[in-house]
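Q: What does the assembled structure look like for these inputs?
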Amino acid sequence: MAVSNPIAEFTDTPLPAEAYARFRAVVQPRVHREVVALDAALGRYLAVDVFAPVALPEFSRSAVDGFAVRASDLTRASAQSPGVLALVGESSMGRAPSVVVKPGTAVGIHTGAMLPEGADAVAMVEWTEQRGSDRVAINRPVRSGDNKIAAGEDVRQGELLLRAGRRLRPDDLGGLAAIGMVQVPVARRPVVAIISGGDEIVPAHVAPALGQVRDVNSGTLGALVEESGGVAWQLGVAPDDFQTFRGMAEQALEGAELVIVSGGSSVGSRDVTRAAVDTFGQPGVIVHGVAVRPGKPTLLAVVRGHPFFGLPGNPVSAIATFRLFVRPTLLRYLGVEEPSGCLPLTARLTSAIPPSGGREDYVQVRLFERNGEALAEPVLGKSNLIFTVVRADGYVRVPVERAGLATGELVRVWQY
Amino acid sequence: MAVSNPIAEFTDTPLPAEAYARFRAVVQPRVHREVVALDAALGRYLAVDVFAPVALPEFSRSAVDGFAVRASDLTRASAQSPGVLALVGESSMGRAPSVVVKPGTAVGIHTGAMLPEGADAVAMVEWTEQRGSDRVAINRPVRSGDNKIAAGEDVRQGELLLRAGRRLRPDDLGGLAAIGMVQVPVARRPVVAIISGGDEIVPAHVAPALGQVRDVNSGTLGALVEESGGVAWQLGVAPDDFQTFRGMAEQALEGAELVIVSGGSSVGSRDVTRAAVDTFGQPGVIVHGVAVRPGKPTLLAVVRGHPFFGLPGNPVSAIATFRLFVRPTLLRYLGVEEPSGCLPLTARLTSAIPPSGGREDYVQVRLFERNGEALAEPVLGKSNLIFTVVRADGYVRVPVERAGLATGELVRVWQY
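A:
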């Protein structure tokens, strides 16, 4: 009977931060660039710093509909004693006005039109009254700069607008359009090979015989890769056979920048992964075994210059360790050295989280609101139950120095 | 001079919730289905309720490496007085074991393998000691159910797993794989036509002459449409000319399910949009003018059964009103009647937000942390400055009944 003792299996199990730091130090990613059309750039990672080629707006504009004026003509205007100016023309949309605002005159203007020479403010139409075709009365005082958008008020020429490594949002695309950058240098998506290991695993489209289970991890990990900016390359299910597995790993290293193997849940396929990695040379395995729940049997290696991840076979563990180790590594291939992302939500625990026995603990929670307060309800369940994640809205991290968490404690929740 | 008075322009300006409710009542979306492969389903909206065709797991499994036993043999086992059982075989991965666990016997088992008949628990290998090839000593008491994942522990047969309208996450794809649903019925992405209006607007790839500005909104709105699950159909820039604009609107209505026009910032192009909509018949304009800042001149119409949005030309206003009115409408075409999404973050304002004068106010904020507290710094700026959004991390809603917000108040921030 070949049941080995997992206590002896991992002699050194660092906490996740220490494990990642050791691994990170030996991974030297290269960011490859490509250029995409602006309308294909949403969610892509910018590969260059972007500077403003011009100031924005490029010329002073009116922020309202009204009359371009010289404020000095109207410092004492009021409803009782309006300032009456000669109407000398109009500033048309989309053209530089030829008319000049001299003392005692005004020019009609619409929101967004260019301010004529001489004008330093705009009187809002609401506080004016036209008198015939050639005069306008203004019922409020006007100060210099009122209702004027100054040239350069949004951005100054040469200003750094967006940094390399930024994940492009809808408004960023608007900003790039504003400066005419209609083709955008972005990081090429790294290819991530995915292998599911284990004699008990059948592809998801196959009806499992008794004792077999469908491959949950290939689909989950592929989607996590896509969500993180990579391209998923599905290599399928590997049996717990050294030669076959090693051949698949060779293929993966040939075509991918990163390789993920999610071990079958058995010791057997973990052994196969480790043995295969050990044949590929230096530096090889950096970390094998992490003080985290779920995710203890995680293997972090570097093979032929490629990050090579052996994730646990249990789906919940595979997801948790993907977030801890694969995602930040993948982001470095996209030029992101310090992942930012959303801040976590603060919520109150509705029930206690039991101690994890010397490991950093990641617990699924369901979120809801009561009386304006955010509540987090732990979704407990064994780490091979994929629907414990599906039923959750986010997760909580319990530091190793805390022996569990109590009902009513405030926790930080990272939302899915 | 054709500067009309905007005070007279909108006689009825409901608050956003009331405006949306009036509009929603006359929009009758149809959800069209299509079927996609599981690995193309990330981020798509599920078009059917999904029920479990089988229980998961389908058979009882071991949660650990160890020995399948009958707990009643080991109720008093201890290190001093271990329970010694006859080792009668092994449960191989991926196969139904032929061996049966009779009283006084044990069967070797790996994590994930099927529990043999007769066994009701698994003794972890850490607390066992093999004695020769045919006996095993167990040093701890075992209770029925220990380290066993029962059939149906994750999901029961027939259980509702995922509801129609759910936006599919990576773990959902894993769940669908677990039940063998490798092709997924999802809502077809609705086509959303986008027109930018205004004589001052030039396409983003054109260098603007003095007085002209580049089209910021087409790119921004297209990305917001894609992010919200639709397909953006870019029709380009419309001049402030009734016939041309009406022709473009006709084309849009012919090919799209929803139409967005972002008006030039001038009254002129707003007038053209309104006049064109009025020629298309009933019900036509539902709301014109909303008590919101930014976004007052928003127009909500239904034309030939299609939602037709006239958004303000200022980019910041266009983004804010897209989120308020277009996004929830678009989501109804994807089967989502009650948008859920992430809960907002609670943060402390670092400076005051001035009163908005009787309108509901949406203010950009930058988020950061200090001493473990989330802080929100308002990014003030006129609503035509796209980079005020680019510089922000989220937004705050100020209800109309509040006259601004004070420094130090706790606010809820919706993160981008």
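The domain at 33-56+159-187 of chain B is CATH 3.90.105.10 (Molybdopterin biosynthesis moea protein, domain 2).
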